[in-house]
Specification:
The chain is of the alpha/beta class and 345 residues long. A seven-stranded mixed beta sheet has the order 1-2-3-4-5-7-6, sandwiched between helices. The chain has a three-stranded antiparallel beta sheet with strand order 8-9-10, with no helix packed on it. Strands 11-13-12 form a three-stranded antiparallel beta sheet. Strand 4, helix 6 and strand 5 form a beta-alpha-beta unit. Helix 6 packs parallel to helix 8 and helix 12 packs antiparallel against helix 13. It is globular and about 55 Å long.
């Protein structure tokens, strides 16, 4: 797999002229890779691409993979940011979500990581059935106790054919409740902002100066290159995605066959994506940018569609920028969908 990814990197370097600002090891579970494999991939990137000085170099990790020696090894190959999938500091929550790690694994991983890394992010999950507000508040406080620079939080979603979906179907466990999730989301915002975190994107909070450069690039519509099975790429006009089957990916690379499909985004597609990503962020949607990029018709359409949400105080107009209010944050994706242009009028 690593060899195939190196070959893809070399071949796709020909289509990429921009300096690399961030390198992100994500997707599956990259923390199971030997450090020498991570080093080999980084070496291939540096040999074939122009990389800025001191890029953000993130690795996603499961807590149970982060031993002291593993953390030291990652630092030695210039990984400078860890994103740790804690999810919850409570054992019952982790068992419910069928996580491989336990609460003690998370605490030990964070204790070790903080002795080496300053730039650490963790993931938390809210809206877990039967998890009380007191328990959620404790989760938030435990995260704050580690003096983290970044926290990502996501509402629990139920995927089909999972153990959790089966529990709900059989009545063993309550289904996810949106009101319950919103209450915990609002509590999260209040507690993190009170402790100096900036809510710069719907699911992302950071101390000042510690926004994820990788995440920010996505939300600001910058181009990115994805390597490996299921990886997605975007160049501003075209989106592509690699085949998801590992064996087929490796075989296709070995035989010089295509490993990706692509779609070219229409003007309406690009507008809709701009709305979706912009409303999720603290930067909002700039009406001047809309007019410049898409034309006055799109600006008028957006203002007309936004009017009812502004009246309901779910959106507000900050000079020439439309932003989601605190009241509307939990609903931002749904609001964005109502602002989409489905066809030219």
């Amino acid at each position: 797999m690593v060899s195939a990814m190196q070959k893809e990197l070399v071949s796709r370097s020909l289509e990429w002229n921009e300096p690399i600002e961030t390198i992100y090891f994500g997707g599956g579970t990259p923390s199971i890779l030997d450090t020498k494999d991570i080093a080999a991939l980084l070496e291939t990137i540096y040999k074939n691409f122009k990389v800025i000085t001191d890029p953000e170099l993130t690795l996603e990790a499961n807590p149970d993979d982060l031993t002291k020696s593993k953390i030291d090894d990652l630092w030695s190959v210039d990984i400078n940011r860890l994103s740790i999938g804690v999810q919850s500091f409570f054992e019952d929550d982790l068992k419910l979500m069928n996580r491989a790690h336990g609460a003690d694994d998370s605490r030990q991983a964070l204790d070790c990581a903080r002795s080496v890394f300053e730039n650490i992010s963790i993931d938390l999950i809210y809206g877990i059935p039967n998890a009380t507000m007191a328990q959620w508040q404790k989760n938030i406080q435990l995260a704050l106790d580690y003096d983290l620079r970044h926290i990502s939080a996501y509402a629990l979603t139920v995927e089909p054919k999972t153990a959790f979906a089966n529990f709900i179907q059989k009545g063993i466990m309550s289904d996810v409740n949106d009101d319950h999730a919103k209450e915990q989301f609002d509590e999260l915002i209040a507690q993190l902002e009170m402790n100096g975190f900036e809510h710069y994107e719907l699911s992302n909070f950071a101390q000042s100066g510690w926004y994820s450069k990788n995440n920010t690039a996505y939300w600001q519509g910058k181009s990115y290159l994805g390597i490996g099975p299921s990886a997605h790429s975007f160049d501003g006009n075209c989106r592509s995605w690699n085949i998801s089957n590992n064996r087929k990916y490796i075989d296709n690379i070995a035989n010089g066959l295509a490993v990706s499909e692509e779609e070219h985004l229409s003007k309406i597609d690009q507008y809709n994506e701009y709305i979706m990503t912009g409303l999720r962020t603290t930067w909002g949607v700039n009406l001047s940018d809309i007019e410049h990029r898409f034309g006055p018709m799109y600006k008028k359409y957006l203002l007309d569609q936004s009017k009812k949400f502004i009246e309901e105080q779910l959106l507000f107009l900050d000079d020439t920028i439309i932003k989601v209010s605190r009241k509307g944050r939990f609903l931002s994706d749904g609001i964005a969908a109502d602002l989409f242009m489905l066809n030219l009028k």
